[in-house]
Amino acid sequence: MGAAAAAHLPVMVDRVLELLAPALSPPGAVLVDATLGRAGHASALLAAHPGLSLIGIDADAAAIAESRRLLAPFSGRATLVQAVYDELPRILAEAGRAVVQAVLFDLGVSSPQLDDPGRGFAYAQDAPLDMRMNQASQLTAAEVLNTYPADKLARVLRDYGEERFARRIADAIVAERARAPFATTSQLVEIVRHSIPAAARRTGGNPAKRTFQALRIEVNGELDALERALPAALDAIAVGGRIVTLAYHSLEDRAVKRELAARSADTTPPGLPVSLDQARPRFRLLTRGAERPSAAEVAVNPRAASARLRAAERIRAAA
Ligand SMILES: C[S@@+](CC[C@H](N)C(=O)[O-])C[C@H]1O[C@@H](n2cnc3c(N)ncnc32)[C@H](O)[C@@H]1O
Q1: 231-281 confidence digits (pLDDT tens)
Q2: Does residue 58 have its Cβ closer than 6 Å to ligand 1?
Q3: CA distances (Å), 271 to each of 176, 257, 274, 275, in order?
Q4: Which of 85, 107, 110, 301 to mutate to test the pocket of ligand 1 (most atoms within 8 A of CB)?
Q5: Which residues contact 250 (CB under 8 A, 6 or more apart)?
Q6: How many angstroms separate the CA atoms of 61 and 110, rounded?
Q7: 285 within 8 A of 312, measured Cβ to Cβ
Q8: How far apart are CA 268 and CA 66, in angstroms?
Q9: What is the sign of the dihedral through the CA atoms of 114, 116, 117 and 119?
Q10: What letters, b where the CB count within 10 A reaches 16 and e where it falls short, cover 220-235?
Q11: Are 29 and 21 in contact, with CB atoms under 8 Å apart?
Q12: What's the whole-model pTM score?
């Protein structure tokens, strides 16, 4: 298979289909795909379940336009909305849906976003420093690099990129922008490369990778949106309904793990002889830890390599 074809393969799609099947088989089931992308998972799920309706969300106008074309064969069953996924409560209210049978989050950037040189997501191609998923929003990566004070920049690189050399890189950025404002990805790649010790440069792939991840998360408010969207999604799932998440870095995965663990724990205070009804878990975990893609999948689709899949099922109604 060619690289272009591989780039658009939905990640761990067979496992996603398997995990969601019990929730989506009954006629009239509704799936929210909160990160529609190019509708890879969504079209596989619609094809597998003839009675299924989809509410597909993406912040990126290009993703919605392209998915509308790709989902034409299912058009009577698909409602597509350009929005940040933390707007889920409003979107469900407007669709007249109090509950849904499943929610899918396939987090992060899509292959078409990475591959589009105009978007500035990829450190491997020279491009304007943009990185906005929603191109109508204001904050760009260039704005972050050219205006944030050094302390704030260092915090972004450390917290969102888990970058060991955050302070050195932030100081180098501030020194460089006094000479010439940041405009392109190659300018940033150069500064990162020069600011980390030579020994660290020789290990762990492109040294700019963590800085690019951090900027993308900051520009799109990704972790904040996820921390608002997950509780809203779980609240909207009917009894017997399921959630599947695919995360691609440890910060996202930790946020998912924390929320799913909290919902699947019995919160009866220790020392009581029996579980309190209102404290019994509302969800049960369907995955033991995070599941990873097979070596065979990664060989065909290298971008699947960092995927971590988690899933849970609602077993009780809200108190
Ligand atoms: C990994 S891709 C999804 C690919 C999709 N599952 C497929 O099979 O084609 C992630 C998508 O989520 C979107 N996205 C990321 N963060 C978002 C957010 N906070 N709100 C809405 N969409 C978001 C991105 O624009 C991107 O299109």
Answers
A1: 999 999 999 999 999 999 999 999 999 999 999 998 888 888 888 888 899
A2: yes
A3: 60, 26, 9, 10
A4: 110
A5: 162
A6: 13
A7: yes
A8: 48
A9: negative
A10: bebbebbebbbebbbe
A11: no
A12: 0.92
